[in-house]
Amino acid sequence: MIQSIHFILKKIYPNFVWELPNDQKKVYLTFDDGPIPEVTEWVLEVLKKHNTKATFFCIGENVQKYPQVFQKIQKDGHAIGNHSFNHLNGWKTTLENYLENVDLCKQELEIHSCSTQLFRPPYGKIKRVQAKKIKQLGYQIVMWDIISKDYDKNISKEMCVANVLKAIQPGSIVVMHDSLKAFSNLEHALPIILKKGSEKGFTFEKLS
Description:
- The protein is an alpha/beta fold.
- Helices cover 44% and strands 14% of the residues.
- The chain is built from eight helices and eight strands.
- The chain has helices at residues 2-12, 37-49, 60-65, 67-75, 95-111, 128-136, 157-165, 183-199; strands at residues 26-32, 55-58, 79-82, 118-119, 140-141, 146-147, 173-177, 203-205.
- Strands 1, 2, 3, 6, 7 and 8 form a six-stranded parallel β-sheet that branches. Strands 4-5 form a two-stranded parallel ribbon.
- Strand 6 (146-147), helix 7 and strand 7 (173-177) form a beta-alpha-beta unit.
- Helix 2 packs parallel to helix 8 (183-199) and helix 7 packs parallel to helix 8 (183-199).
């Protein structure tokens, strides 16, 4: 279902950032839904071990709850994006409420001296009018071309790895989740993806 939604949205919104093709085998690893102490801190340690930078699309409410974890993301030099304050589904939210929620996240990030032009709609679901207004505010709307499905309890840990490594190519934007729901698959998959991706000559970098 997620992949079919992704395909449709890519056709409807070609001006979103779906991938960043390059000839240097750079790949962009992104994490949605944090920060969460039990998970995000583990992700940061794994990234540090592999000398890797990534992009964290943070939920404003979680930043508010766990400011020290958010500050550690900043301290470690990773990129940060706005993922709304309450993880709203744009398809089920009015324009006014959606923009207000995005702004609440922006305000929370700014409390911690963080300014970003990166925005990812929760669930990848956003209406045309919402997207138009978000872009007018100066945001790049960042989607993906690979989703690990680490949040899906119906797939195996091995499949989570395969979802990424079988599809990876220069410029890929990969979605994973630093959330409790995803942690079981993430804990298995992330180190393998970083190791095997590196062995294939890929470098994992943050968005800018």
